[in-house]
Design goal:
222 residues, eight-stranded antiparallel β-barrel, 9% helix
Length: 222
């Protein structure tokens, strides 16, 4: 079912892009937290980490396909890192969590316009994303758990935010907002054993989360 939905979005975007009235460069930054939380122990203290969190950067194109509607295509990188480290008199201790994913995102968006001035209106949108995960690595008090590798996966996202015009002459717009992403990944390899040895939460990794700070910059070309 998800493959059919992804194909439909790609088809809609392709047709929309051909008919685009206005084309723009899209740069987007986010800081996220995941819906699934876990903890690392470091010298008796607990530090929170989440597979669906981290910081990300996207680069792509935004094309207006009809009055108030636009399609967007971007490639991005999301990095999640928690690191605690000490070296006291030669005694080293480290606890860390490292995970990243590369992704392609396709979406449609509607701008509900309030004015043509600074505060132009609010937008709502959604789309699909295809993610290629990096290695899942956890170290706890110098004990390194085996590396887990995951298969690429298809996810979904929804967007809500505002559009602000920061330069009329240069056609620059800023879009602060929120994004909710739904994404799960299946483990395909485990360095220290079989995938079946993993806990259920690692076999089926929940990478869903919310971008609590998400801001996009759009530069229109025409």
């Amino acid at each position: 079912m998800t493959k059919y939905i992804a194909t439909l979005f790609l088809l809609i975007f392709s047709l929309s892009f051909v008919q685009a009235q206005k084309l723009g460069l899209l740069i987007k930054y986010n800081a996220s937290f995941g819906f699934t939380q876990d903890y690392l122990n470091y010298n008796g203290l607990e530090y929170n980490y989440s597979p669906g969190g981290g910081m990300g950067l996207e680069l792509g194109l935004d094309a207006e396909v009809a009055k108030g509607f636009s399609a967007n295509l971007s490639i991005g990188y999301q990095q999640n890192l928690v690191w605690q480290y000490s070296n006291v008199n030669g005694f080293v201790n480290e606890s860390s969590f490292k995970f990243n994913r590369k992704f392609v995102s396709v979406g449609l968006k509607q701008l509900i316009r309030f004015s043509d001035n600074f505060f132009q209106g609010m937008f709502i949108g959604g789309g699909v994303n295809y993610s290629i995960p990096g290695k899942f690595i956890i170290t706890e008090n110098e004990w390194r758990y085996g590396i887990i590798e995951y298969s690429p996966a298809l996810g979904f996202h929804g967007d809500l935010g505002f559009r602000l015009r920061i330069s009329e002459r240069k056609r620059l717009y800023v879009e602060p907002g929120f994004r909710v992403k739904i994404l799960r990944m299946n483990a395909k390899a485990y360095e220290s054993g079989e995938v079946s040895d993993l806990a259920d939460s690692y076999k089926d990794l929940n990478v869903s989360g919310i971008e609590v700070f998400s801001i996009g910059l759009i530069k229109k070309f025409n």
